[in-house]
Amino acid sequence: MLLIGEGANRFSKGQKRQRYAEARGECGEVVAALELLVVLELVPADDAQQALALAGRVGAMLTRLLQRFV
Hints:
Helix content is 83%, strand content 0%. By secondary structure, it is an all-alpha fold.
């Protein structure tokens, strides 16, 4: 999620969009990793639910930011 901060410090629309797109991709990776941890029973499903909800909110925020920089 460091790419969100990096994107915020860029000046051109293209650079901002690139960083936010990369951050959204990483957000998807976080969701996949959490789901894998649940399947492997390394993390209780109840504990992962809150993190998955937060990741969904971050992904939605990034989608909206990307729309601003088209």
